[in-house]
Write a structure and sequence with these properties.
Number of helices: 1
Low-confidence stretches: 10-20
Shape: elongated
Strand content: over 45%
Distance between the termini: 43 Å
Mean pLDDT: 83
Oligomer: single chain
Largest sheet: 7 strands, antiparallel
Helix content: under 10%
Order of helices and strands: EHEEEEEEEEEEE
């Protein structure tokens, strides 16, 4: 049995040299974590509870387990909801990216993401480039749901798993 938690670090950024220009043109982008596993976000930690490769353990509230047939494993996942606000000139958009931070105890490739349902795409680990999660987010307020989880195989080590994701907004 493994206990898993995911620390989410939420950042709103303006990329590169655009930072000074963005301020001058009243560009502003904010990223807020609104819900974690169906509950209001009161922490930046996503508690998956005890997870296993066969969906034997009852899941934590808001967590679903799906068997990965024929791989003999399981994906434990839930939804996180963000609110993105963008202000600025017409035609301005942002994209949401995420990258797993180096370190932590979860094995490489186990942290996965998707737009909904069973997440399939592994998060890259920093210093690798970030995974683009949503593109062309328009001005105004947009709600974005992401399905995040852990994909396990019977050979993954047991114990407490902890890892972190840094989310960024890139103004385009």
């Amino acid at each position: 049995m493994r206990r898993a938690a995911l620390a989410i670090i939420v950042l709103g950024l303006v990329s590169g040299l655009a930072a000074a220009e963005a301020h001058a043109q009243q560009r502003r982008a904010t990223l807020t974590l609104v819900q974690v596993l169906g509950q209001p976000a009161t922490s930046l930690v996503v508690p998956f509870g005890t997870i296993d490769a066969m969906c034997l353990t009852p899941p934590a509230a808001g967590v679903t387990c799906a068997l990965n047939i024929p791989v003999n494993g399981a994906t434990w996942y839930g939804t996180v909801r963000f609110r993105i606000r963008l202000a600025g000139p017409a035609g301005l958009t942002v994209r949401l990216t995420g990258v797993r931070q180096a370190g932590g105890t979860a094995p490489a490739g186990t942290l996965v993401d998707g737009p909904a349902g069973v997440p399939l795409t592994p998060y890259p680990t920093s210093p690798a480039g970030a995974l683009t999660l949503v593109t062309a987010i328009p001005r105004g307020t947009t709600v974005v749901n992401r399905s995040i989880g852990f994909r396990l195989t019977p050979t993954d080590p047991s114990g407490g798993w902890v890892t972190s994701i840094v989310y960024s907004l890139i103004v385009e």
